[in-house]
Amino acid sequence: MEMTLPPKVTDRAFARLAEIGASGQGQALRVAVDGGGCSGFQYDIKLDIPADDDLILSKDGETVVVDSVSLPFLSDAVIDFTEELIGARFVIKNPNATSSCGCGTSFSM
């Protein structure tokens, strides 16, 4: 069985969470993996209340959580925030994904 490494969160992602005031509302950025999407799996990224069994990644009072089911799919992934001409969003750079769709929210392993 391969060892599961926790995902990493960039300073830019934590800074964006601070800008939107997630911690002030008692919320964290939840990053999960669901079945579906055009490539087999899709990311579900939203503000949510942390649960007892979540992996908690925090810095400067801001928090990102990953549930135990999603964690193996996100092993050693990087959670980042990007601003481009087409919009601003949280993105996942996942070394476990063998392919992904054009929008970046769906992937296969």
TrEMBL record:
InterPro entries, sorted: ATAP (IPR016092), ATAP_core_dom (IPR000361), FeS_cluster_insertion_CS (IPR017870), HesB-like_dom_sf (IPR035903)
Stored Gene3D superfamilies: HesB-like domain
Domain of life: Bacteria
Transmembrane spans: none
Residue ranges occupied by any Core domain in the UniProt entry: 8-104
One term of GO molecular function: iron ion binding
GO biological process: iron-sulfur cluster assembly
Pfam families reported for this sequence: Fe-S_biosyn (PF01521)
SUPFAM superfamilies associated with the record: HesB-like domain
NCBIfam families in the cross-refs: iron-sulfur cluster assembly accessory protein
Protein name: Putative iron binding protein from the HesB_IscA_SufA family
Organism: Litoreibacter arenae DSM 19593
